[in-house]
Amino acid sequence: MRPVRLVTGFVTVGAWTLVSRIAGFVRDVMMAAYLGAGPVAEAFLIAFSLPNMFRRFFAEGAFNLAFVPMFAKKVEAGDDAQGFARDAWAMMTAILLGVTLLGLLAMPWLVLAMAAGFAGDERFELAVLFGRIAFPYILFISLVALLSGVLNATGRFVNTSAVPVLMNLVFIAAMLAADRAGWDMGLTLAWATPVTGIAQLAMTLWATRRAGFRFPLRRPRLTPELRRLAVIAAPAVLAGGVVQVNLIVGRQVASFTEGAIAWLAYADRLYQLPLGVVGIAVGVVLLPDLSRRLRAGDGAGGRASFNRAAEFALALTLPAAVALIVIARPIVAVLFERGAFGPADTAETALAVAVYGAGLPAFVLHKVYQPLFYAREDTRRPFRYAALAMVVNAALAVGLMPVIGYIAAALATTVAGWAMVWQLARGARGMGDAAAFDSRFLARIGRIAVAAALMGAVLWLAAQGLAGPLAAPGLRYLALAGLIALGIVAYFGAGFALGAFRPADFRSALRRRRDGPPPALPPDGGQ
Protein backbone atom coordinates (compact mmCIF):
# COMPACT_ATOMS: atom_id res chain seq x y z
CA MET A 1 0.00 0.00 0.00
CA ARG A 2 1.75 3.15 -1.22
CA PRO A 3 1.46 6.42 0.76
CA VAL A 4 -1.30 7.76 -1.52
CA ARG A 5 -3.29 4.56 -1.16
CA LEU A 6 -2.56 4.51 2.56
CA VAL A 7 -4.00 8.00 3.00
CA THR A 8 -6.96 7.00 0.84
CA GLY A 9 -7.57 4.26 3.40
CA PHE A 10 -7.39 6.87 6.18
CA VAL A 11 -9.94 8.99 4.33
CA THR A 12 -12.28 6.04 3.75
CA VAL A 13 -12.23 4.96 7.39
CA GLY A 14 -12.29 8.56 8.61
CA ALA A 15 -15.26 9.51 6.45
CA TRP A 16 -17.37 6.59 7.67
CA THR A 17 -16.25 7.22 11.24
CA LEU A 18 -17.34 10.85 10.83
CA VAL A 19 -20.80 9.66 9.76
CA SER A 20 -20.89 7.35 12.78
CA ARG A 21 -19.81 10.11 15.16
CA ILE A 22 -22.44 12.50 13.75
CA ALA A 23 -25.08 9.82 14.27
CA GLY A 24 -23.63 9.32 17.74
CA PHE A 25 -24.06 13.03 18.41
CA VAL A 26 -27.69 12.81 17.44
CA ARG A 27 -28.06 9.80 19.75
CA ASP A 28 -26.43 11.61 22.68
CA VAL A 29 -28.32 14.86 22.06
CA MET A 30 -31.56 12.88 22.24
CA MET A 31 -30.39 11.03 25.35
CA ALA A 32 -29.44 14.30 27.03
CA ALA A 33 -32.84 15.78 26.20
CA TYR A 34 -34.78 12.75 27.47
CA LEU A 35 -32.63 11.85 30.49
CA GLY A 36 -30.33 14.82 31.16
CA ALA A 37 -27.63 13.97 33.70
CA GLY A 38 -30.04 12.26 36.11
CA PRO A 39 -29.94 8.84 37.77
CA VAL A 40 -31.40 6.89 34.82
CA ALA A 41 -28.81 8.43 32.46
CA GLU A 42 -25.94 7.62 34.82
CA ALA A 43 -27.19 4.07 35.43
CA PHE A 44 -27.49 3.36 31.71
CA LEU A 45 -24.08 4.87 30.94
CA ILE A 46 -22.42 2.59 33.51
CA ALA A 47 -24.38 -0.44 32.23
CA PHE A 48 -23.45 0.32 28.61
CA SER A 49 -19.80 0.86 29.53
CA LEU A 50 -19.45 -2.66 30.95
CA PRO A 51 -19.70 -4.70 27.71
CA ASN A 52 -17.72 -2.03 25.88
CA MET A 53 -14.96 -2.18 28.50
CA PHE A 54 -14.64 -5.95 28.16
CA ARG A 55 -14.85 -5.66 24.37
CA ARG A 56 -11.83 -3.36 24.31
CA PHE A 57 -10.07 -5.61 26.78
CA PHE A 58 -10.60 -8.90 24.93
CA ALA A 59 -11.15 -7.98 21.30
CA GLU A 60 -10.02 -4.57 20.06
CA GLY A 61 -7.47 -3.90 22.78
CA ALA A 62 -5.66 -7.23 22.92
CA PHE A 63 -6.82 -9.97 20.59
CA ASN A 64 -6.96 -7.95 17.38
CA LEU A 65 -3.65 -6.18 18.01
CA ALA A 66 -2.02 -9.61 18.04
CA PHE A 67 -4.32 -11.25 15.47
CA VAL A 68 -4.13 -8.64 12.69
CA PRO A 69 -0.32 -8.71 12.17
CA MET A 70 -0.26 -12.53 12.16
CA PHE A 71 -3.23 -12.75 9.80
CA ALA A 72 -1.86 -10.03 7.47
CA LYS A 73 1.48 -11.82 7.19
CA LYS A 74 -0.29 -15.07 6.32
CA VAL A 75 -2.27 -13.29 3.63
CA GLU A 76 0.92 -11.75 2.24
CA ALA A 77 2.74 -15.11 2.24
CA GLY A 78 -0.17 -17.08 0.78
CA ASP A 79 -0.48 -19.30 3.87
CA ASP A 80 -3.77 -20.71 5.15
CA ALA A 81 -5.08 -17.40 6.46
CA GLN A 82 -8.69 -18.56 6.39
CA GLY A 83 -8.02 -21.62 8.54
CA PHE A 84 -6.19 -19.47 11.09
CA ALA A 85 -9.11 -17.03 11.19
CA ARG A 86 -11.64 -19.86 11.64
CA ASP A 87 -9.67 -21.30 14.56
CA ALA A 88 -9.50 -17.86 16.18
CA TRP A 89 -13.25 -17.36 15.62
CA ALA A 90 -14.14 -20.67 17.29
CA MET A 91 -11.88 -20.06 20.27
CA MET A 92 -13.06 -16.49 20.79
CA THR A 93 -16.70 -17.56 20.61
CA ALA A 94 -16.18 -20.14 23.35
CA ILE A 95 -14.32 -17.67 25.58
CA LEU A 96 -16.90 -14.93 25.09
CA LEU A 97 -19.80 -17.22 25.97
CA GLY A 98 -18.10 -17.93 29.30
CA VAL A 99 -17.37 -14.24 29.91
CA THR A 100 -20.99 -13.34 29.14
CA LEU A 101 -22.36 -15.87 31.61
CA LEU A 102 -19.96 -14.78 34.36
CA GLY A 103 -20.79 -11.12 33.72
CA LEU A 104 -24.52 -11.71 34.10
CA LEU A 105 -23.99 -13.54 37.41
CA ALA A 106 -21.54 -10.97 38.79
CA MET A 107 -23.38 -7.84 37.65
CA PRO A 108 -23.91 -6.26 41.12
CA TRP A 109 -20.19 -6.51 41.87
CA LEU A 110 -19.27 -5.22 38.41
CA VAL A 111 -21.45 -2.14 38.94
CA LEU A 112 -19.80 -1.46 42.31
CA ALA A 113 -16.37 -1.92 40.72
CA MET A 114 -17.28 0.72 38.13
CA ALA A 115 -19.18 3.17 40.34
CA ALA A 116 -18.96 2.60 44.09
CA GLY A 117 -20.66 5.95 44.58
CA PHE A 118 -23.91 4.32 43.40
CA ALA A 119 -24.14 2.14 46.52
CA GLY A 120 -27.22 2.88 48.57
CA ASP A 121 -29.16 4.92 46.00
CA GLU A 122 -31.50 4.23 43.09
CA ARG A 123 -28.70 4.34 40.53
CA PHE A 124 -27.31 1.01 41.76
CA GLU A 125 -30.46 -1.06 41.21
CA LEU A 126 -31.06 0.55 37.84
CA ALA A 127 -27.47 -0.06 36.72
CA VAL A 128 -27.66 -3.75 37.71
CA LEU A 129 -30.93 -4.20 35.81
CA PHE A 130 -29.72 -2.36 32.72
CA GLY A 131 -26.36 -4.13 32.89
CA ARG A 132 -27.87 -7.62 32.83
CA ILE A 133 -29.90 -6.70 29.77
CA ALA A 134 -27.05 -5.00 27.90
CA PHE A 135 -24.07 -7.21 28.79
CA PRO A 136 -24.58 -9.89 26.06
CA TYR A 137 -23.56 -7.14 23.61
CA ILE A 138 -19.97 -8.12 24.39
CA LEU A 139 -20.40 -11.45 22.59
CA PHE A 140 -21.67 -9.92 19.36
CA ILE A 141 -19.43 -6.86 19.17
CA SER A 142 -16.24 -8.78 20.02
CA LEU A 143 -16.91 -11.20 17.16
CA VAL A 144 -17.52 -8.16 14.97
CA ALA A 145 -14.06 -6.90 15.99
CA LEU A 146 -12.44 -10.17 14.89
CA LEU A 147 -14.23 -10.16 11.53
CA SER A 148 -13.31 -6.49 11.08
CA GLY A 149 -9.67 -7.42 11.59
CA VAL A 150 -9.96 -9.97 8.76
CA LEU A 151 -11.50 -7.38 6.43
CA ASN A 152 -9.05 -4.62 7.35
CA ALA A 153 -6.03 -6.87 6.90
CA THR A 154 -7.12 -7.50 3.30
CA GLY A 155 -7.68 -3.82 2.55
CA ARG A 156 -11.49 -3.77 2.92
CA PHE A 157 -12.31 -0.82 5.14
CA VAL A 158 -15.78 0.29 4.04
CA ASN A 159 -17.96 -2.26 5.82
CA THR A 160 -16.00 -2.25 9.07
CA SER A 161 -16.09 1.54 9.13
CA ALA A 162 -19.83 1.62 8.39
CA VAL A 163 -20.85 -0.92 11.07
CA PRO A 164 -20.78 1.60 13.98
CA VAL A 165 -23.28 3.77 12.10
CA LEU A 166 -25.79 0.93 12.45
CA MET A 167 -25.49 0.98 16.25
CA ASN A 168 -26.30 4.67 16.48
CA LEU A 169 -29.22 4.35 14.07
CA VAL A 170 -30.72 1.54 16.17
CA PHE A 171 -30.45 3.65 19.33
CA ILE A 172 -32.00 6.68 17.62
CA ALA A 173 -34.89 4.58 16.30
CA ALA A 174 -35.40 3.00 19.73
CA MET A 175 -35.62 6.38 21.49
CA LEU A 176 -38.05 7.73 18.92
CA ALA A 177 -40.22 4.62 19.31
CA ALA A 178 -40.07 4.84 23.12
CA ASP A 179 -41.07 8.49 23.05
CA ARG A 180 -43.99 7.82 20.73
CA ALA A 181 -45.21 4.66 22.52
CA GLY A 182 -44.56 5.85 26.08
CA TRP A 183 -42.06 3.09 26.90
CA ASP A 184 -39.57 3.42 29.76
CA MET A 185 -36.60 5.18 28.15
CA GLY A 186 -33.91 3.53 30.29
CA LEU A 187 -35.21 0.00 29.62
CA THR A 188 -35.58 0.80 25.92
CA LEU A 189 -31.93 1.85 25.68
CA ALA A 190 -30.82 -1.25 27.60
CA TRP A 191 -32.71 -3.64 25.29
CA ALA A 192 -31.50 -1.76 22.20
CA THR A 193 -27.90 -2.61 23.13
CA PRO A 194 -27.92 -6.38 22.40
CA VAL A 195 -30.25 -5.83 19.44
CA THR A 196 -27.71 -3.56 17.78
CA GLY A 197 -24.96 -6.11 18.46
CA ILE A 198 -26.90 -8.79 16.60
CA ALA A 199 -27.45 -6.41 13.66
CA GLN A 200 -23.77 -5.45 13.52
CA LEU A 201 -22.65 -9.09 13.57
CA ALA A 202 -25.05 -10.02 10.78
CA MET A 203 -23.81 -7.14 8.64
CA THR A 204 -20.14 -8.05 9.16
CA LEU A 205 -20.69 -11.77 8.52
CA TRP A 206 -22.34 -10.80 5.23
CA ALA A 207 -19.30 -8.69 4.28
CA THR A 208 -16.78 -11.42 5.13
CA ARG A 209 -18.80 -13.94 3.13
CA ARG A 210 -18.68 -11.61 0.11
CA ALA A 211 -14.92 -11.34 0.61
CA GLY A 212 -14.59 -15.11 0.37
CA PHE A 213 -14.30 -15.98 4.05
CA ARG A 214 -16.56 -18.55 5.74
CA PHE A 215 -16.97 -18.99 9.50
CA PRO A 216 -18.99 -22.17 10.13
CA LEU A 217 -19.80 -23.36 13.64
CA ARG A 218 -17.04 -25.63 14.92
CA ARG A 219 -15.55 -26.86 18.16
CA PRO A 220 -12.61 -24.75 19.37
CA ARG A 221 -9.17 -26.34 19.26
CA LEU A 222 -5.93 -24.97 20.63
CA THR A 223 -3.59 -25.11 17.62
CA PRO A 224 0.13 -24.19 17.74
CA GLU A 225 -0.71 -20.94 15.95
CA LEU A 226 -3.35 -20.04 18.53
CA ARG A 227 -0.82 -20.78 21.28
CA ARG A 228 1.55 -18.35 19.60
CA LEU A 229 -1.28 -15.86 19.28
CA ALA A 230 -1.97 -16.21 23.01
CA VAL A 231 1.71 -15.63 23.86
CA ILE A 232 1.78 -12.48 21.74
CA ALA A 233 -1.60 -11.28 22.98
CA ALA A 234 -0.93 -11.82 26.69
CA PRO A 235 1.00 -8.57 27.23
CA ALA A 236 -1.59 -6.73 25.12
CA VAL A 237 -4.33 -8.19 27.33
CA LEU A 238 -2.52 -6.78 30.34
CA ALA A 239 -2.02 -3.45 28.56
CA GLY A 240 -5.72 -3.40 27.68
CA GLY A 241 -6.47 -4.10 31.32
CA VAL A 242 -4.33 -1.13 32.30
CA VAL A 243 -6.31 1.15 29.99
CA GLN A 244 -9.57 -0.11 31.43
CA VAL A 245 -8.28 0.44 34.97
CA ASN A 246 -7.76 4.07 33.98
CA LEU A 247 -11.39 4.28 32.87
CA ILE A 248 -12.60 2.60 36.05
CA VAL A 249 -10.61 5.02 38.21
CA GLY A 250 -12.18 7.95 36.35
CA ARG A 251 -15.70 6.62 36.74
CA GLN A 252 -15.15 5.83 40.41
CA VAL A 253 -14.02 9.41 41.01
CA ALA A 254 -17.00 10.76 39.06
CA SER A 255 -19.56 8.47 40.75
CA PHE A 256 -19.23 10.40 44.03
CA THR A 257 -20.47 13.62 42.37
CA GLU A 258 -24.09 13.46 41.23
CA GLY A 259 -24.30 14.02 37.48
CA ALA A 260 -20.53 13.79 36.89
CA ILE A 261 -20.62 10.44 35.08
CA ALA A 262 -23.03 11.93 32.54
CA TRP A 263 -20.98 15.15 32.20
CA LEU A 264 -17.83 13.18 31.47
CA ALA A 265 -19.69 10.87 29.08
CA TYR A 266 -21.07 13.75 27.01
CA ALA A 267 -17.63 15.43 27.01
CA ASP A 268 -16.10 12.13 25.93
CA ARG A 269 -18.45 12.04 22.96
CA LEU A 270 -17.24 15.44 21.79
CA TYR A 271 -13.52 14.70 21.87
CA GLN A 272 -14.13 11.20 20.48
CA LEU A 273 -15.35 12.81 17.24
CA PRO A 274 -11.92 13.93 16.01
CA LEU A 275 -10.25 11.01 17.80
CA GLY A 276 -12.45 8.55 15.96
CA VAL A 277 -12.28 10.25 12.59
CA VAL A 278 -8.49 10.62 12.63
CA GLY A 279 -6.95 8.40 15.29
CA ILE A 280 -9.00 5.28 14.74
CA ALA A 281 -8.71 5.66 10.96
CA VAL A 282 -4.93 5.84 11.24
CA GLY A 283 -4.75 2.87 13.61
CA VAL A 284 -7.05 0.67 11.53
CA VAL A 285 -5.16 1.28 8.28
CA LEU A 286 -1.59 1.61 9.56
CA LEU A 287 -1.26 -1.66 11.49
CA PRO A 288 -1.97 -4.08 8.61
CA ASP A 289 0.04 -1.89 6.23
CA LEU A 290 3.14 -1.91 8.45
CA SER A 291 2.75 -5.66 9.05
CA ARG A 292 2.76 -6.35 5.30
CA ARG A 293 5.75 -4.07 4.76
CA LEU A 294 7.76 -5.80 7.47
CA ARG A 295 6.96 -9.15 5.87
CA ALA A 296 8.16 -7.79 2.51
CA GLY A 297 11.28 -6.13 4.00
CA ASP A 298 10.16 -2.68 2.82
CA GLY A 299 11.77 -0.46 5.49
CA ALA A 300 11.65 2.74 3.42
CA GLY A 301 7.97 2.24 2.67
CA GLY A 302 7.26 1.60 6.34
CA ARG A 303 8.95 4.86 7.32
CA ALA A 304 6.99 6.77 4.68
CA SER A 305 3.71 5.26 5.93
CA PHE A 306 4.54 6.16 9.54
CA ASN A 307 5.43 9.75 8.67
CA ARG A 308 2.42 10.38 6.46
CA ALA A 309 0.18 8.90 9.16
CA ALA A 310 1.68 11.19 11.81
CA GLU A 311 1.44 14.22 9.52
CA PHE A 312 -2.15 13.46 8.52
CA ALA A 313 -3.14 12.87 12.15
CA LEU A 314 -1.64 16.04 13.57
CA ALA A 315 -2.77 18.25 10.68
CA LEU A 316 -6.37 17.43 11.60
CA THR A 317 -6.01 16.87 15.34
CA LEU A 318 -4.17 20.00 16.50
CA PRO A 319 -6.85 22.41 15.21
CA ALA A 320 -9.57 20.17 16.65
CA ALA A 321 -7.86 20.26 20.06
CA VAL A 322 -7.56 24.05 19.95
CA ALA A 323 -11.24 24.40 19.01
CA LEU A 324 -12.37 22.10 21.84
CA ILE A 325 -10.43 24.24 24.32
CA VAL A 326 -11.41 27.67 22.97
CA ILE A 327 -15.11 27.21 22.19
CA ALA A 328 -16.04 24.30 24.47
CA ARG A 329 -18.96 26.10 26.11
CA PRO A 330 -20.74 27.25 22.92
CA ILE A 331 -20.39 23.74 21.46
CA VAL A 332 -21.87 22.04 24.51
CA ALA A 333 -24.64 24.62 24.94
CA VAL A 334 -25.82 24.39 21.35
CA LEU A 335 -25.60 20.61 21.06
CA PHE A 336 -26.88 19.46 24.45
CA GLU A 337 -28.66 22.22 26.41
CA ARG A 338 -32.34 21.39 26.09
CA GLY A 339 -34.98 19.39 27.93
CA ALA A 340 -33.52 17.81 31.07
CA PHE A 341 -30.00 19.13 30.33
CA GLY A 342 -29.65 22.60 31.88
CA PRO A 343 -27.08 25.46 32.03
CA ALA A 344 -25.31 23.97 35.06
CA ASP A 345 -24.81 20.73 33.13
CA THR A 346 -23.45 22.76 30.21
CA ALA A 347 -20.83 24.50 32.36
CA GLU A 348 -19.53 21.26 33.90
CA THR A 349 -19.50 19.36 30.61
CA ALA A 350 -17.69 22.21 28.81
CA LEU A 351 -14.95 22.19 31.44
CA ALA A 352 -14.41 18.47 30.86
CA VAL A 353 -14.39 19.00 27.07
CA ALA A 354 -11.61 21.60 27.36
CA VAL A 355 -9.50 19.32 29.57
CA TYR A 356 -9.95 16.34 27.26
CA GLY A 357 -9.17 18.58 24.28
CA ALA A 358 -5.70 19.27 25.67
CA GLY A 359 -5.02 15.54 25.52
CA LEU A 360 -6.49 14.91 22.08
CA PRO A 361 -3.17 15.04 20.15
CA ALA A 362 -1.72 12.53 22.61
CA PHE A 363 -4.64 10.13 22.19
CA VAL A 364 -4.22 10.27 18.40
CA LEU A 365 -0.45 9.82 18.55
CA HIS A 366 -1.05 6.58 20.48
CA LYS A 367 -2.70 5.27 17.32
CA VAL A 368 0.30 6.33 15.23
CA TYR A 369 3.04 4.92 17.46
CA GLN A 370 1.48 1.66 18.68
CA PRO A 371 1.41 -0.06 15.25
CA LEU A 372 5.21 0.29 15.13
CA PHE A 373 5.37 -2.12 18.07
CA TYR A 374 2.45 -4.42 17.28
CA ALA A 375 3.49 -4.89 13.64
CA ARG A 376 6.72 -6.36 15.06
CA GLU A 377 4.68 -8.54 17.43
CA ASP A 378 6.16 -6.54 20.32
CA THR A 379 3.38 -6.27 22.88
CA ARG A 380 5.56 -6.24 25.99
CA ARG A 381 6.89 -2.71 25.86
CA PRO A 382 3.49 -1.09 25.22
CA PHE A 383 2.25 -2.94 28.30
CA ARG A 384 5.07 -1.54 30.45
CA TYR A 385 4.40 1.96 29.14
CA ALA A 386 0.66 1.60 29.78
CA ALA A 387 1.32 0.38 33.33
CA LEU A 388 3.32 3.51 34.13
CA ALA A 389 0.64 5.71 32.54
CA MET A 390 -1.92 3.92 34.74
CA VAL A 391 0.04 4.85 37.86
CA VAL A 392 0.14 8.48 36.70
CA ASN A 393 -3.60 8.44 35.99
CA ALA A 394 -4.61 6.87 39.31
CA ALA A 395 -2.32 9.10 41.39
CA LEU A 396 -3.64 12.28 39.79
CA ALA A 397 -7.32 11.27 39.74
CA VAL A 398 -7.45 10.12 43.36
CA GLY A 399 -4.98 12.68 44.67
CA LEU A 400 -6.63 15.70 43.05
CA MET A 401 -10.27 14.68 43.64
CA PRO A 402 -10.44 16.30 47.12
CA VAL A 403 -9.02 19.50 45.61
CA ILE A 404 -10.76 19.95 42.25
CA GLY A 405 -13.56 17.36 42.37
CA TYR A 406 -14.74 15.22 39.48
CA ILE A 407 -12.66 17.11 36.88
CA ALA A 408 -9.61 15.34 38.36
CA ALA A 409 -10.68 12.30 36.32
CA ALA A 410 -10.47 14.19 33.02
CA LEU A 411 -7.20 15.93 33.93
CA ALA A 412 -5.62 12.62 34.94
CA THR A 413 -6.66 11.06 31.62
CA THR A 414 -5.04 13.87 29.65
CA VAL A 415 -1.76 13.89 31.60
CA ALA A 416 -1.51 10.09 31.46
CA GLY A 417 -2.10 10.25 27.70
CA TRP A 418 0.91 12.52 27.21
CA ALA A 419 2.99 10.31 29.52
CA MET A 420 2.14 7.34 27.29
CA VAL A 421 3.16 9.19 24.11
CA TRP A 422 6.49 10.21 25.65
CA GLN A 423 7.25 6.58 26.47
CA LEU A 424 6.17 5.27 23.05
CA ALA A 425 8.36 7.85 21.31
CA ARG A 426 11.38 6.92 23.43
CA GLY A 427 10.82 3.23 22.86
CA ALA A 428 10.48 3.69 19.09
CA ARG A 429 13.94 5.25 18.84
CA GLY A 430 15.49 1.80 18.90
CA MET A 431 13.69 0.90 15.67
CA GLY A 432 16.04 3.06 13.60
CA ASP A 433 14.85 4.91 10.52
CA ALA A 434 11.49 3.13 10.50
CA ALA A 435 10.33 5.32 13.41
CA ALA A 436 12.27 8.47 12.52
CA PHE A 437 10.54 11.62 11.33
CA ASP A 438 11.54 12.62 7.81
CA SER A 439 12.40 16.10 6.57
CA ARG A 440 8.89 16.77 5.23
CA PHE A 441 7.27 16.04 8.60
CA LEU A 442 9.81 18.15 10.52
CA ALA A 443 9.37 21.05 8.11
CA ARG A 444 5.59 21.05 8.39
CA ILE A 445 4.72 20.25 12.01
CA GLY A 446 5.71 23.67 13.38
CA ARG A 447 3.70 25.41 10.68
CA ILE A 448 0.68 23.23 11.46
CA ALA A 449 0.92 24.28 15.12
CA VAL A 450 1.12 27.99 14.20
CA ALA A 451 -1.87 27.69 11.86
CA ALA A 452 -3.88 26.00 14.64
CA ALA A 453 -2.97 28.76 17.11
CA LEU A 454 -4.04 31.47 14.65
CA MET A 455 -7.33 29.64 14.13
CA GLY A 456 -7.81 29.54 17.93
CA ALA A 457 -7.44 33.31 18.15
CA VAL A 458 -9.98 33.81 15.36
CA LEU A 459 -12.44 31.44 17.06
CA TRP A 460 -12.14 33.16 20.43
CA LEU A 461 -12.80 36.61 18.96
CA ALA A 462 -15.66 35.33 16.80
CA ALA A 463 -17.29 33.53 19.76
CA GLN A 464 -17.39 36.81 21.69
CA GLY A 465 -19.05 38.56 18.78
CA LEU A 466 -21.58 35.76 18.28
CA ALA A 467 -22.50 35.38 21.96
CA GLY A 468 -26.05 36.63 21.34
CA PRO A 469 -26.88 34.41 18.32
CA LEU A 470 -25.24 31.38 20.01
CA ALA A 471 -27.75 31.72 22.86
CA ALA A 472 -30.81 32.48 20.68
CA PRO A 473 -33.09 29.43 20.21
CA GLY A 474 -33.78 30.12 16.55
CA LEU A 475 -30.22 31.05 15.58
CA ARG A 476 -27.84 29.01 17.69
CA TYR A 477 -27.38 26.12 15.25
CA LEU A 478 -26.66 28.49 12.39
CA ALA A 479 -24.33 30.56 14.59
CA LEU A 480 -22.36 27.47 15.69
CA ALA A 481 -22.13 26.23 12.10
CA GLY A 482 -20.85 29.66 11.04
CA LEU A 483 -18.32 29.68 13.88
CA ILE A 484 -16.99 26.25 12.91
CA ALA A 485 -16.89 27.19 9.21
CA LEU A 486 -14.92 30.33 10.08
CA GLY A 487 -12.45 28.22 12.06
CA ILE A 488 -11.99 25.82 9.13
CA VAL A 489 -11.38 28.68 6.71
CA ALA A 490 -8.97 30.35 9.12
CA TYR A 491 -6.99 27.16 9.74
CA PHE A 492 -6.65 26.01 6.15
CA GLY A 493 -6.05 29.55 4.93
CA ALA A 494 -3.23 30.00 7.44
CA GLY A 495 -1.93 26.50 6.73
CA PHE A 496 -1.73 27.04 2.99
CA ALA A 497 -0.14 30.48 3.48
CA LEU A 498 2.48 29.09 5.87
CA GLY A 499 3.21 25.98 3.79
CA ALA A 500 1.92 23.62 6.47
CA PHE A 501 0.24 21.62 3.70
CA ARG A 502 -0.52 22.00 0.03
CA PRO A 503 -3.68 21.56 -2.04
CA ALA A 504 -1.99 18.70 -3.89
CA ASP A 505 -1.76 16.73 -0.63
CA PHE A 506 -5.54 16.70 -0.24
CA ARG A 507 -6.22 16.09 -3.93
CA SER A 508 -3.98 13.02 -3.90
CA ALA A 509 -5.55 11.75 -0.68
CA LEU A 510 -9.07 12.02 -2.04
CA ARG A 511 -8.30 10.69 -5.53
CA ARG A 512 -8.28 6.93 -5.85
CA ARG A 513 -5.42 5.67 -8.01
CA ARG A 514 -4.51 2.37 -9.48
CA ASP A 515 -1.16 1.93 -7.78
CA GLY A 516 -0.57 -1.78 -7.87
CA PRO A 517 -2.42 -5.00 -7.15
CA PRO A 518 -4.70 -5.30 -4.13
CA PRO A 519 -3.58 -7.33 -1.14
CA ALA A 520 -3.51 -11.09 -1.64
CA LEU A 521 -6.77 -12.90 -0.99
CA PRO A 522 -7.41 -16.32 0.48
CA PRO A 523 -7.48 -19.11 -2.12
CA ASP A 524 -11.27 -19.52 -2.10
CA GLY A 525 -12.15 -16.13 -3.50
CA GLY A 526 -12.46 -12.43 -2.90
CA GLN A 527 -14.83 -9.57 -3.21
What does this protein structure show overall?
This protein is 82% helix and 0% strand. It has 527 residues and is mainly α. The chain has one domain (3-210, 222-510). α2 packs antiparallel against α3 (81-105). The protein is globular, with a radius of gyration of 23 Å. The two termini are 18 Å apart.
Spell out the blueprint of helices and strands.
Elements: H1 3-35, H2 39-77, H3 81-105, H4 107-114, H5 122-134, H6 137-153, H7 158-181, H8 185-210, H9 224-255, H10 260-296, H11 299-326, H12 328-336, H13 343-374, H14 380-404, H15 407-428, H16 439-465, H17 467-471, H18 476-498, H19 503-510
Helix pairs in contact: 1-7, 1-10, 1-11, 2-3, 2-5, 2-6, 2-8, 2-9, 2-10, 3-6, 4-5, 5-8, 6-8, 7-8, 9-14, 9-15, 10-11, 10-13, 11-13, 11-16, 12-13, 13-15, 14-15, 16-18
